[in-house]
Amino acid sequence: MKTRARAGSGASHERRITTALFAAGLATFATMYSAQALLPSLSAAFGAAPAHAALAVSLTTGFLALAIIPVSALSSRIGRTRVMTASAVSSAVIGLLLPFSPSLEVLLTGRALQGLTLAGVPAVAMAYLAEEIGADGLGAAMGVYVAGTTIGGLAGRVVPAFTLGLASWRWAEATISVAAAVCTVWFVRGLPPSRGFDARPAGIRTVLRDLAAQLRHRGLLCLFALAFVLVGGFVSLYNFLGYRLTQPPFELPAAVAGLVFILYLAGTAASAAAGRLADRLGRHRILAASVATMGLGLFLTIPDNLVTLVLGIALCTAGFFGSHTVASAWVGAMANGNRGAASSLYLFAFYLGSAVIGGGGGIAYTHYGWTGLTLCVAVLLLIAAILVCALILHSRYTGPAQVADLGQPA
């Protein structure tokens, strides 16, 4: 009876964690991308050039990337739940103040501060799940968290866009900020105390030593590189998809073209499914299938046919988020020692790929159009396939502990 009680208590604990992290993903990514739909309105309201207004997005993601590793190190010292709670609450408070910004400069300062505070959730969530969730359920739990991030990213773009049809950018920002604050309350109230956390010193030497230990792990290096190339290709497609849809031969209205973000729901479904399937069939199989799905989707976007284009983008979205779910869980399972260091390096590579490749894809699109862009993304997917093969070979030949990561008996 006691054993059953403990098992039931453990299952309840894991459900609470999974639900709370889902809410955290919603709040964090809705906040992160909320300014993207507001950029034209900000230019009109403040008389700012598009590049100036776009800082409302880039400052947030840029400062988030800079803060990931320091925040992860801090969480190793004071606790994962403390850092995530402080991060979510502080970013929600800043968000509620942003609609009252008297100038664009004040708004940009607030968005930069949000980037710093937002870092606490994505930097810590993977390590927290790896410490608190059993190996058999880690993939599914990671899938639910990533699903929350996809819905949050979708809501952060769509909700302000719809609100702008009725009111100013201030009301649009207020709407998504209030929604993020509600999700933050849900997260803070539902997050249970940590059971698997062991405090570690967080001095500079310790942090550098932990990071160096993860960088010496060949399997983790493959996962870091995989995050860099996959997110870079994925972001490149979405960055310039709107241009293709609003230009010949499609020439869709901008409002209709903006509905393409609804395809993020394919990523939501794929995240949860990929996590469960990885636990059952093995991470290597689902990761390879997800990369292949992206490749098929990319091929379908080439013809000037709206149906195949939409289907292709949906497959690319599902494949990307499926890959991200599996790779995220695998980082936590494969890491030696400080899982937070490994997770922070993965996320650093993730956001770096988004910034560098996602922006650089514009060169290919400007000179060679959609065909040139898809060719560049195809090269990235080929690199990803090579990395998956290297990852599988590394895992097969580095001992029983790594074989278990493939979903096979240890």
TrEMBL record:
It comes from Nocardia iowensis. InterPro entries: MFS, MFS_dom. The chain crosses the membrane at residues 20-39, 51-71, 83-100, 112-130, 142-163, 169-188, 219-240, 252-274, 286-303, 309-333, 345-366, 372-393. Belongs to the major facilitator superfamily. The keyword Cell membrane applies. Residues 17-396 form the Major facilitator superfamily (MFS) profile domain. This is MFS transporter. It is found in: Cell membrane. Keywords: Cell membrane, Membrane, Transmembrane, Transmembrane helix, Transport. It comes from the Bacteria. PANTHER family: BLL2771 PROTEIN, INNER MEMBRANE TRANSPORT PROTEIN YNFM. It is a multi-pass membrane protein.
